[in-house]
Q: What sequence folds into this?
């Protein structure tokens, strides 16, 4: 098992390297020249030359990639083109904000969704199961801004319960922070709960159809015990994968939610950088998002291996 | 897959089909049905709904309903084009990879895995940053990113089919590549691919709308639903319903597609379950 986990770790590192190449290549696929594209119509020969120099465009793409990648490894994310500040200084606080919001949503969404998924699998075909399924289908289809706008309209404009904009600043108290971020959190919870619930239900049901569950039922065990003790541990690995998959979705979905509520996170930061065509900022933000995504998937794989009864106690291999 | 008999269509599927039909009409005839042009300023910003303007006016005093009708072509058209292109790329390549195997298959699969390990929205933002947002770039980006998912599904489906006895028989008969693709793999992979088409359309549709909402998708002067939500979002703070019309339309179309896909897939799973 240790070997399997090491393999996953190695795979994760390789993926990160390849992803960094893709991100770098993606920002450089311009038909012409980055400098000309950034300056657009305001380009003068002097400013073009200066910008080329600054971006290191006089050296080849491989050399530039290596310089960029080694910079990242040393914690240097480059300099913003727009305001000449180090990207790292601008990026990390916002990354913290995004992770805080995503974490807040995950803490509520995951237990709720897994609980709902397990109960609707246990009560398969009941009214609760069908109702949960319909509600899940509806919330999955609703775009974040529709849910967000509805919440703003009712909760903050008409009932005046929570602020419509998620204004946060460093040093604000926890209570104030929670109050400001509850609406965006709710939107994230709504869009992720349904997915996790539906997929948890499917995984648990797949286990429930197996012979050993039938045996447990025929032994006369109560349904609750069959589900919790016999079915759920075996469905845990796939469920963790489902949860991880949806949490990574949460981190990307946060881009839209941050825009709706004007939350000062990495998603809005990246969108701003894209509209300003600030190459180093976009590269850095994309790399951070991709890294979180890869690392989460890797952790999920490792957790699934660690929790899988069959992998923990492998059969003796015939050699 | 055989679709459930027509007498037993569940209510949700009827509802979904109606929504899809409505969307199709909007897509085909929307701009012709619109009473006003998409850029015509007709009154005060955010004017209340009235007889002349059933959904009121937007933040620039343009008729909301006309803009919705004009935007249908853009919102639906861009995503439809992207998904069609992504299937044209992903399905043949996926089939070929499965049929031929060897290193092209391996490289293709690895490349797709890497692209898929980056969130789609992030990849799209990177490309849009480099190329700027225009309709061809938008459609091309979404199509290429989406084709990785299609490739993966097509490859897995074809891998399952080439090992079946009938495919074996065809190969032993000496059928060529084209026959194998056209007569053995495609017909058997079609039903799941159709369902996937619906889901991918749904995804692309939400994705285009999302990008436009971020201001990076369809650019003015063209009306499109995501961009309309962005434009009149401020109205919500004054308790106006204006941004809910385009947002609700987007939601409705997505629900419609989901209901139909769900129905098609549900028919499939029960049939498989009965045979077990």
A:
């Amino acid at each position: 098992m240790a070997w399997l986990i090491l393999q996953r770790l190695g795979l994760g590192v390789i993926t990160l390297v390849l992803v960094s190449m893709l991100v770098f290549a993606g920002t450089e696929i311009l038909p012409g020249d980055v400098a000309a594209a950034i300056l657009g119509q305001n380009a003068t020969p002097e400013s073009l030359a200066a910008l080329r120099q600054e971006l290191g465009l006089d050296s080849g793409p491989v050399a530039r990639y290596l310089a960029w990648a080694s910079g990242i490894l040393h914690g240097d994310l480059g300099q913003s083109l727009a305001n000449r500040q180090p990207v790292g200084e601008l990026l990390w606080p916002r990354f913290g904000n995004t992770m805080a919001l995503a974490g807040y949503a995950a803490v509520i969404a995951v237990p709720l969704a897994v609980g709902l998924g397990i109960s609707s699998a246990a009560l398969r075909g009941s009214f609760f199961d069908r109702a949960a399924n319909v509600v899940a289908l509806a919330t999955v289809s609703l775009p974040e801004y529709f849910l967000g706008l509805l919440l703003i309209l009712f909760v903050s404009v008409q009932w005046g319960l929570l602020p419509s904009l998620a204004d946060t600043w460093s040093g604000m108290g926890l209570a104030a922070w929670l109050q400001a971020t509850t609406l965006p959190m709710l939107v994230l919870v709504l869009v992720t709960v349904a997915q996790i619930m539906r997929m948890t239900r499917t995984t648990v049901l797949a286990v429930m159809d197996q012979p050993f569950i039938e045996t447990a039922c025929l032994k006369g065990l109560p349904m609750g015990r069959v589900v919790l003790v016999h079915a759920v541990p075996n469905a845990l690995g796939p469920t963790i994968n489902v949860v991880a998959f949806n949490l990574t979705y949460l981190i990307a979905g946060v881009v839209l939610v941050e825009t709706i509520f004007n939350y000062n996170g990495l998603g809005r930061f990246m969108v701003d950088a894209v509209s300003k065509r600030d190459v180093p900022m976009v590269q850095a933000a994309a790399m951070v998002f991709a890294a979180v995504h890869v690392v989460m998937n890797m952790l999920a794989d490792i957790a699934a291996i660690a929790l899988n009864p069959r992998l923990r106690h492998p059969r003796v291999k015939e050699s | 897959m055989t679709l459930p008999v027509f007498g037993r269509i569940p209510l949700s599927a009827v509802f979904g089909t109606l929504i899809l039909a409505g969307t199709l009409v909007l897509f085909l005839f929307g701009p012709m049905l619109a009473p006003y042009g998409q850029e015509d300023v007709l009154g005060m910003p955010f004017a209340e709904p009235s007889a002349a303007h059933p959904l009121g006016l937007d933040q620039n005093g343009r008729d909301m309903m006309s803009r919705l009708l004009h935007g249908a072509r853009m919102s639906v058209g861009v995503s439809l084009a992207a998904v069609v292109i992504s299937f044209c790329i992903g399905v043949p390549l996926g089939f070929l990879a499965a049929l031929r195997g060897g290193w092209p298959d391996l490289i293709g699969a690895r490349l797709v895995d890497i692209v898929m390990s980056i969130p789609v929205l992030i990849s799209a933002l990177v490309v849009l940053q480099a190329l700027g947002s225009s309709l061809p770039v938008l459609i091309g980006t979404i199509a290429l990113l989406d084709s990785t998912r299609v490739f993966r599904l097509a490859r897995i489906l074809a891998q399952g089919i080439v090992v079946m006895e009938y495919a074996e028989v065809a190969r032993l008969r000496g059928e060529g590549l084209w026959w194998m693709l056209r007569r053995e793999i495609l017909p058997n992979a079609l039903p799941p691919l159709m369902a996937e088409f619906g889901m991918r359309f749904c995804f692309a549709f939400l994705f285009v709308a999302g990008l436009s909402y971020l201001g990076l998708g369809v650019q003015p002067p063209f009306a499109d639903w995501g961009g309309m939500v962005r434009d009149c979002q401020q109205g919500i703070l004054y308790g106006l319903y204006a941004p809910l019309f385009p947002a609700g339309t987007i939601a409705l179309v997505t629900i419609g597609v989901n209901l139909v896909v769900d129905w098609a897939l549900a028919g499939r799973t029960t049939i498989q379950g009965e045979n077990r």
